[in-house]
Amino acid sequence: MSQPNGIEVDGLVRVFKKGPRAVDGIDLEVPPGEIYGFLGPNGAGKSTTVLMLTTLLPPTEGTARVAGYDVVREGAKVRIAIGAALQDAALDPFLTGREHMRLQGGLHGLDRRERERRGDELLERVGLSEAADRKVGGYSGGMKRRLDLGLALVHRPRILFLDEPTTGLDIQSRTALWEEVSRLSKEDGATVFLTTQYLEEADVLADRVGIIDHGKIVAEGTPAALKAEIGHAHVEAQPANEEDRGRLDAVLERCDGDLTSIVRELDREGIRVARLTVHEPSLDDVFLAKTGRSLEGAGDDEDELLEEALA
Amino acid sequence: MNRRFRSVALAVAARSIHNVFTNPALILPSVVFPLFFFAAFAGGLARVGDIPGFDYDPGYTAFQFAFVLIQSSAFGGVFTGFGIARDFEMGFGRRLLLAAPQRPAILVGYLIAAFVRAAFTMLVVTVVALAAGAELNAGGIDLFGLYGLAVLVNLAAALWAGGVALRVRSIQGGPLMQVPVFLLLFLAPVYVPLDLLTGWIHAVATVNPFTALLAAARDLIDGDAGTLGVAVAISAGLVALFGVWALRSLRRAEAAGG
Question: Among A51, A244, A243, which residue's Cα sits nearest to residue A161?
């Protein structure tokens, strides 16, 4: 059953004439109001998937329904329901932030008064009120990203697609954007489909995560469940006296990651430690377990691959 | 045309018009080119009006005004194609494709902008021509026909160039948009009437559709609307042909993801 604010994908494939099988039969379901993190290295197929779900690129095979509408047969209805901030914030350097808001409002059929009111509201929300009348050619990367996010929200979309929204941003801009995305989901009830190559971003923001590699989804679930799937936290310790190394390792092995037992045993045996670290499994560990590679630094530049394939 | 279609078209048009009229680099070429041609042809070649066989009552300045008016309309359309190509090259086209429920509205928006730009250029060209002494024997209906014809030429050229722009999606497609229009314009009887041309240029000009358009424009300036029907039929045919071309190009751009 198709959900009016959800996303349903069944066997989606995109093959480029001169290029790779960028998306290779993915299935996924995003219920209304969820933040779904689509995590993968460069070139994994994240952006191609977003282009198909936002009706910018027709799929080669498979079906996708967004907001209850088929992306191929009912593209116009999909576009009315969604907002998107794609990887490259395509802004017109000759227009100011406010003029962009007016343009976007016009594209979405808002009347003049609503365009002005909504534009002012969103510029305030993304922290660009003071820069609203400056041409965006002079905006920083973070300002452009924030404006792009604001533009995607002009018509109050039910579903929001954010394609690597924080790539290249400094930590402050990134955190501000995370807060806004989280607010959109929690307060406005928007469904958010967010692609990222940052583990932390998926971990912090996403209710559920899908990990994609070479066009296939290799793992899916909540961040906690995915980490639990590959094992529990483990403890690393450095003895204060290197002669105690053997006894320390024996304690760690015996207590199997249970921190309380480890501390009690160390105290009972009189072993002093210089450092004790609890290592939680990360999404990178999940990626490593599923693909045999680390996510950090893996992959090719998908944008470049796309450009080449579409040329 | 439903409300949403109109809203998209007007938004695209407003933005294009804003950019053209706030950036001298975008508006100047479409104004300067025709004025340059007018000054060069009507000024430098004025004695052509005295040669035997040249029997155009309004005179040589008005003879050239007709050409420059049609030429400026055509080039106005081509420059709009440049704008479309630039938008798609920098990714702005994707923003438009993403927001527009009915994507042909984007094309209509660009065409409205092309018309406004051409109207401005035609106004400037007309004022300069009148100031330079062009005599217009045309009545109100003739003038309406003259400028209506120019608008159809502008539309046809914008659809042609827009079609190329949507296929190439790069400003590198500029010569492909411009050169065919340039050739069609200058392989028509630009400097002298068709009867005074000889050799291969006469043969080419005879079958060149622009020749009929130019002849109709000159006749209208002379107060004769007799050839307007043929010219409107030709230009409307070009609009229809290039309209299909532009829509197919839009589909091509959509299939490529913008």
Answer: A51
Residue B15 to residue A104, Cβ atoms within 8 A:
no
Chain B: residue whose CA lies nearest to A49: B257
* Interface membership of A90 toward B (CB under 8 Å): yes
Q: Which token pair is B254?
A: 């959509």
Q: Is A282 exposed, middle or buried (0-12, 13-18, 19+ CB in 10 A)?
A: middle
Q: What is the pLDDT of residue A43?
A: 85
Helix (H, G, I), strand (E, B) or coil at A27: strand
d(CA B14, CA A244): 77
**What are the chain A neighbours of B4 within 8 Å (beta carbons)?**
109
Taking the Cβ of residue B172 and every Cβ of chain A, the question of whether any pair is shorter than 8 Å is answered with: no
- Other CB atoms within a 10 A radius of the CB of residue A61 amount to 12
Name the DSSP letter for residue B243: H
Task: Identify the DSSP state of A173.
Answer: H
pLDDT tens for each residue of B107-166: 999 999 999 999 999 999 999 999 998 888 888 999 999 999 999 999 999 999 999 999
Q: Would the CB atoms of A79 and B257 count as touching at under 8 Å?
A: no
In this prediction, residue A298 carries a pLDDT of 57
Where residue A232 falls (left for φ over 0; alpha for ψ -120 to 50; beta otherwise) is: beta
Residues above pLDDT 90, as percent of chain B: 78
Contact (Cβ atoms closer than 8 angstroms) between residue A131 and residue A140: no
User: CB distance A86–B94 less than 8 Å?
Assistant: yes
**Cα–Cα–Cα angle for A162, A164, A170, rounded to 5 degrees:** 120
* Residue range A50-101, pLDDT digits in tens: 999 999 999 999 999 999 999 999 999 999 999 999 988 789 999 999 999 9
Contact B15 A99 (CB under 8 A): yes
d(CA A191, CA A184): 8
**What are the chain B neighbours of A86 within 8 Å (beta carbons)?**
91, 94, 98
Q: Give the count of Cβ contacts less than 8 A between chain A and B.
A: 76
A88 shares contact with chain B (CB less than 8 Å): yes
Helices of type H across chain B: 3-22, 24-38, 44, 60-89, 92-99, 104-131, 140-168, 174-186, 199-207, 209-221, 228-255
Best to test chain B binding among A107, A148, A160 (most B CBs inside 10 Å): A107
Tokens for A291? 């693909």
Q: CB-based contact (8 Å) between A56 and chain B?
A: yes
Q: Is the pTM of this model over 0.90?
A: no
Among B88, B95, B169, the residue to mutate for chain A (most A Cβ within 10 A): B95
